[in-house]
Amino acid sequence: MATQSPIPFLDDLFERAGKVLQPPGWMVDEVQQRVVLFLNHVLMQEDEAMARLSRQKGRVVLAQWRWFAIQFKATPAGLLERAPADAPADLTLTITEESPFNLAQAALRGDKPPVRIEGDVQLAAEVNWLADHIRWDAEEDLSRIVGDAPAHMLTETARRFAQALRQFVAAAPGTRKGAAARGVATGSGRGPA
pTM value? Predict the structure, then answer.
């Protein structure tokens, strides 16, 4: 069951702003280049990921949500590069949830966003494996800047904050747990849990 955004006018505002306020081409280009650099940084920390991606060399993945789109191409080294805009995609991944607020809530719960997948099944399986197994080790990167102990303290604080935020979102109106916490029947016929 899809939940409505608690603030529908913000979804509408986001939609209208996105159609009217388009960033300049150079900014889109720079942001996409930074995304590729970050993804490659994360991939280089996992040999298995690079080996899997190198088997897909030359294959193009188009990722899109609303009016945002980026094309990646797998390199022989097992990394990513931006594909030319006119390159045909072997795999298209479209995030189907329109609301940025619902996406943020799902991310805070640790859920994957709903995605429509079109194209090569083997490439889709490899991308799914990457999504399931590759994680950014923020603590390791932070420790290179501030040292091990401060990095551990900062990331542990961030984890606790994220956990508290997840609990808050889970208890928010419009969720089953939130309804049960307020004593509202959830449709199970048993009342509050």
Answer: 0.66
Task: Give the CATH class of 10-136.
Answer: alpha beta
Dihedral pair phi/psi, residue 46, rounded to 5°: -135, 105
pLDDT tens-digit series, residues 3-45:
555 566 666 666 666 666 777 889 888 999 999 999 999 999 9
- Sketch the domain layout of the chain as residue ranges: 10-136, 139-181
- Angle ∠(168,183,170) on CA atoms, nearest 5: 20
Query: Closest by alpha carbon to 29, among 80, 74, 78, 85?
Result: 85
Q: Residue 133, Cα to own-chain centre: how many angstroms?
A: 14
Of the candidates 85, 59, 57, the one whose C-alpha atom is nearest the C-alpha of residue 70 is 85
Query: Residue 63 forms beta bridges with which residues?
Result: 70, 93
| Structure tokens given for 111 | 């859920």
